[in-house]
Structures are given as C-alpha cells and as structure tokens.
Amino acid sequence: MNTKIILHILLNPVAGNGKSKKAYAKLIQFLKQKKIEYSTHSSSYSGNLTDIAQKYGNSLHSKNEILLVIGGDGSLNEVVNGIKRSQHPDTAIAYLPAGSGNDFARAAGLTNNPYKLVNQLLQNYPAQQVDCGFFVDNDIKNEPIYFINNFGIGLDAYIVNRSNSHSLKKKLNKINFGNLVYVSNIFNALIKQNTFSVTVRANEKEYKYDNVYFTTTTNHPYFGGGVAILPKANIYSHVLDTVVVQKPNFIKFIKLFTKLIKDGSHVNDPLFHYIEAQEIHIKTNIPEYSQIDGESGPYSKYDITFKIDYFNLRK
Ligand SMILES: Nc1ncnc2c1ncn2[C@@H]1O[C@H](COP(=O)(O)OP(=O)(O)OP(=O)(O)O)[C@@H](O)[C@H]1O
Fold first, then answer.
1. What residues contact 139, with CB distance under 8 A and at least 6 apart?
2. Could you give the C-alpha distances from 123 to 64, 66, 118, 187, 314, in angstroms and in order?
3. What is the pLDDT of residue 224?
4. Atom 7 (ligand 1): residue with closest C-alpha?
C-alpha cells in the first residue's frame, strides 16, 4: 500500500566524485513528479553529516518522515554516528549509495536507483535491524565510535591514508584520473608496509600473530570497494570478525590474490586467520595507520575493544 511520505535528505555533494550530485538530481526530479514532499541538508565539510543527523535524531518525527542519506560509505558512517549519539538512536535511516566504493550497500544488497528506492519507501516496509560495530577511543571523550564496514590496521589503512591525503588525487579526480593515484598507492603500500604483531582476545581465548601485514575487524564481507575479504560474514549475524593476514612472499602473494579474486579460497590459507565474536580485543606492538570505513583513522599503537551493535535501516 502506498502511503504519504516526507523525505529529509542528507546529501554529501562531494561523494563518489560527483555521483552523489547526479543521483540527487534524478531523485529530486522524481520526487517532484510524484509530488512527494522533501527537505535537503547538504554537508559543507567533513564530519558535518554527523552533526546534522544528531540534530535530526534529537527531535521527534512522525512515522511518515524518512531520513535519507545520499553518499558513500563515509557519509553513511557519519549519519549512523550522529543518529546513535542522538536522543532517538533507533531513528531509521534510508540510504541511496552514491560513493566510490559503496561496500555497505553491496553487503546489504541496496539499490542505487533513486526511482526504485522511492517506490520501495512508498511501500512503507518496516525498518530492519542491521549490524554495525563500535569501539571506544579513550582519547576522544569516551564516546563510542561506530563503523558500518570495518576498522583496518596495516596495509589497507596505509593505502587509504595515502590516497585520502594525496593532493594529486584531488586534482586528477577532476578529470577522472584519480584511480591512477589509487593504483600507484596500492603498489607503494605493498612494498613499503612493514609487519607488526597482533594479539587478539575473544571468546575467552587469546591468539598471537607475528609478521602481520594487516588486520581488519569487519561487519560484512567487503573492503576496499568490493573485495570480498571474508565472504561468509554478513550484517545480520550479530558478530564481528577480526581478519588477520600475515605477510606472504611475492609468489605466495600472487597465489593468495588469485584465490581472493577467483573463488574466495584464500580464507583456507595458513597465512589467513579470522576470529568471530560479539566482542573482540586487539593489541598491536608498534604504531600503524588505521582506517575506519575507508576514512583515515589515527596513526598509533592499538589497544582497543570492538563490540557489535545495530542500527535501523529502511529498505
Ligand atoms: N562538503 C564537503 N566538502 C568536503 N568533504 C566533504 C563534504 N561533505 C562530506 N565530506 C567528506 O567526503 C568524504 C567522502 O565521502 P564518502 O565516503 O561518502 O564518499 P566516497 O569516498 O566517494 O565513497 P566510498 O566511501 O563509498 O568509497 C568523507 O570523508 C566526508 O567526510
């Protein structure tokens, strides 16, 4: 049954190197055609969507009002953090993926077609609880920090940090050559990333790994824009998975990479480990880069506890 809805759109105008603006334009055209009421709040700076979402979650809204995010994983992350910190942390979120990687949308099987999404929202299906992870960083006001995809330390974080800070990428993005810098950063990271030691505590057991290339604590299979690092993970499992990959030699790396792309059998390799739990504690021995949902995190040693939580998603 179609109901009357009012959309409150939270737009990241720079996501997906312009994709979000195009998706927004299509959406607005359709909303006007269908005579659907809407308001738009565009982010003006990094982190702005968290404040806008928190404000939204602090007020009461009627059942037919829907919060809709347009952007990539970073934008959804900001909105989830804002809603979870608000007075109504159960406020449901609808999401139109329009970023570069869109890993969460891939994991949740979301449409990136604005017309399809609006038609779904008009059906007024109940919101679904989907998993997200969080950790508490004692340096940042003791507030939980939520992630929808993963928290990575080591190789993936090195690539994210180099790519996000690269001024050349910003220039090349304008002419659609930003991916060249991304690819060159991957090669650079593969050579330069050092190894470190990780201790993982979960399910009342302790696991120690040396010679670690990267570790990522993930909510679903994907990272880096569609790489299925842990195919069996899913956003309804109510557990997180910490993946630990030890550094392979060059030949082994090619083999592992082929398995990863071909059939996911990399998960059976002796250098690949994963631990599944509702609460996972990680300790590293030297400073490393980190990434949270594809955004640069701190460069430090980590002694950090990850826990599972959920947010309400309107599909
Ligand atoms: N007005 C703005 N100006 C500059 N940066 C912004 C603005 N609004 C949001 N941001 C930042 O844009 C960055 C990218 O957003 P987002 O992650 O959604 O897109 P993406 O990187 O293209 O997609 P994905 O994460 O799916 O690959 C985020 O770091 C976000 O904080």
1. none
2. 11, 13, 9, 47, 11
3. 87
4. 45
16 lines ligand 1 (CB under 6 A): yes
Give the Cα separation of 152 and 149 in Å (integer).
10
For residue 2, is pLDDT > 80?
Answer: no
For residue 165, what pLDDT band results from cuts at 50, 70 and 90?
A: low
- The angle formed by the CA atoms of residues 292, 251 and 230, to the nearest 5 degrees, is 35
Asked if 202 contacts 242 with a C-beta cutoff of 8 angstroms, the reply is yes
What tokens appear for 194 in the block?
A: 């050092």
Q: Tokens 């009421």 identify what position?
A: 37
Residues 229 and 243: their CA atoms lie apart, in Å, by 8
Domains, the chain, ordered by start: 6-125 (3.40.50.10330), 150-314 (2.60.200.40)
Is ligand 1 within 6 A of the CB of residue 98? no
- At residue 130, the 3 state secondary structure works out as strand
Query: Strands, E, within 12-126: which ranges?
Result: 37-42, 65-71, 93-97
Helices (H) and strands (E) in the chain, counts: 9, 17
